[in-house]
Amino acid sequence: MTLIALGINYNTAPVSIRERLAFPTETLNTALQQLLHTKPIQEAAILSTCNRTEFYCQSEIKDKQALIDWIAESRQVNPQDFTPYLYSYEDNQFIRHIFRVACGLDSMILGEPQILGQMKTAYQAANEAGTLGKYLGKLFQHTFSAAKKVRTDTAIGSSPVSVAFAAVQLAQQIFDKLSEQTALLIGAGETIELTARHLHQQGIGHIIIANRTYDKAHTLAAQFNGYAIALSELPKHLSEADIVVSSTASQLPILGKGLLESAIKKRKHKPIFMVDLAVPRDIEAEVAQLKDVYLYTVDDLQNTINENMNSRRQAAEQAEEIIDTQVETFLGWLRSQGAQSTIKDYRSQADTIRAQMLQKSLAQLSKGDDPEAVLTRLAHGLTNKLIHTPSIQIREAGINERPDLIAAAREIFKLQSQS
To answer: Has 57 been annotated as catalytic?
Structure first.
């Protein structure tokens, strides 16, 4: 029995390869069941995200070729197109790898928490497909425990390391309740989408998205129960915003000091928190001079992010130590499984002897033999049967000069010296 992980990620493969090996969620059930019918695979799970696709298997042998062939057939890709980008791990290395992935130590953004949720989705999909067994099922459960311990015992995920997340966290520090605030987001690119997502997750009251292309703004706003406006409508809606985050590709400022002064008057000097994530800037620098405006630039947030990245790197060192311990714990469980089969066989052998001796004694009792004599013979015969084979093996160990086996026997049976 061996555990095998095979995969590609953002470090090893370009997006053109990653997208060809990706598995949409709705196809996982069928794919997993097909994979399980591939010899020598006995258990299987698939983790598929935008940054990685990994195949986790328990196999009868250490041969990866059957898995590679299945991937090629399933994704209709020539093996030569993706095998140069593959990495693989077996047994101990696999266990360490899956722990590190779940903890965010192998992510593009160190310590990012989303991967743990994606790992749980992979587990759930495999569980529903019926492709998890004793080993992978236990490994996933231990993986989740290890990730929880890392999150609890280190600061790896406590500090924001993206400008979008940092902007939202800063807003949370300024406003007691985001649920009572309105956020105006200018732009519709990746940074604004991330900002909208973080705000939505933190329970923001209202989201307005302004963009040069109204349809794009509308599509984005609909995801977060917000509404869209055109850039030309900014003067009309600016006074509604408690939070303004801007990130566009404009070469000229979109918001000037005069526009903000008008908005502040309409708001009766209720403060506005503003974050300019654009380069060049979307908000005129002079806006910072206004008394009721708190303006932050991407540079202000970047200093915080750099400090937080250093903090995460230190936490990652602590996390690696925790993972070392967790790997050893799981390896101990794996080793115990080999002993379990021996214990099971030993018990079965003893039960067979017991049943035979008991049947013989019951027959003697039914014939009218003295019960005390029958019990005496049962105890004597059962003892002889149980110690017969071990006694022969220990004697043979002495003849063959195997003191290690004799010492092991004394330890297993907890024998006390009679001398």
So the answer is: no
